[in-house]
Amino acid sequence: MRLVAVSAGLSTPSGTRLLADRLAEAVHGELEPQGYEVESRVVELRELAVAIANHLVTGFPPPPLAAAIDAVTGADGLIAVTPVFSASYSGLFKSFFDLIDPGALTGRPVLVAATGGTARHSLVLEHALRPLFAYLRAVVVPTGVYAASEDWGTGGDAYAEGLPARIRRAGSELGALMAARSADPEPGDEISALERQLSDLRFD
């Protein structure tokens, strides 16, 4: 299975990249005990910023950007993580996904996540990220993960799950959707099965 994480973090080291890595580890932890072999890749948008801007102007992606787009559209599961800017996803994050064909992620399982300095922006998952991927016709897992600065290293309390628990739950949900999708028959298989059913029919 191909798992791709898109990280729109700008700094080095990046909390956004760290969250993407932790989420990818959680997906591996869900799928590998079931016998699935998972190949992971992280797309760092910071490294593609100039190429993204040029592509928006010229319409022609250079090879590294084209490879990143192909990786995202060819993934069996996608993790999308952005820092919060002005109460929404970053411009770099949105610019990259503006380059994705609206039908290219149809039915693709996606886990959305974001990082920010304060928990006040946690609703960015619901008012910005989910609508974006709904437009792209992806299937977004129920649990989105928002990590504020104070969430790192906390285990939660009796009333709320800590960040590690939310990461595990979201990773488990994405892994389950990826496994279910891989178990679905290919379109050609569905047609063959239908043909077999029709050929078995007997008419009086």
Describe this structure in words.
By secondary structure, this protein is α/β, with parallel strands linked by helices. It has a single domain (2-200), classed as Rossmann fold (3-Layer(aba) Sandwich), CATH 3.40.50.360. Helix content is 46%, strand content 18%. Strands 1, 2, 3, 4, 5, 6 and 7 form a seven-stranded mixed β-sheet that branches. Helix 1 (15-31) crosses helix 6 (163-183). The N and C termini lie far apart (47 Å).
Provide keyphrases for this structure.
46% helix; 7 strands; 7-stranded mixed β-sheet; 7 helices; single chain; Rossmann fold; alpha/beta; 204 residues
Topology:
Blueprint: E1 2-7, H1 15-31, E2 39-44, H2 49-58, H3 63-73, E3 77-85, E4 88-89, H4 91-98, E5 109-116, H5 124-135, E6 139-140, E7 145-148, H6 163-183, H7 187-200
Number of strands: 7
Question: How big is the Rg?
Answer: 19 Å
Q: Sketch the topology as an H/E string, one letter per element.
A: EHEHHEEHEHEEHH
CATH superfamily: Flavodoxin domain
The overall number of domains is 1
What are the low-pLDDT stretches, counting only 5+ consecutive residues below 50?
187-195
What class do helices, strands and sheet pairing give?
A: alpha/beta
> What is the CATH top level name?
Alpha Beta
Intertermini distance: 47 Å
What can be said about the biggest beta sheet? 7 strands, mixed
| CATH-defined topology | Rossmann fold
How many helices? 7
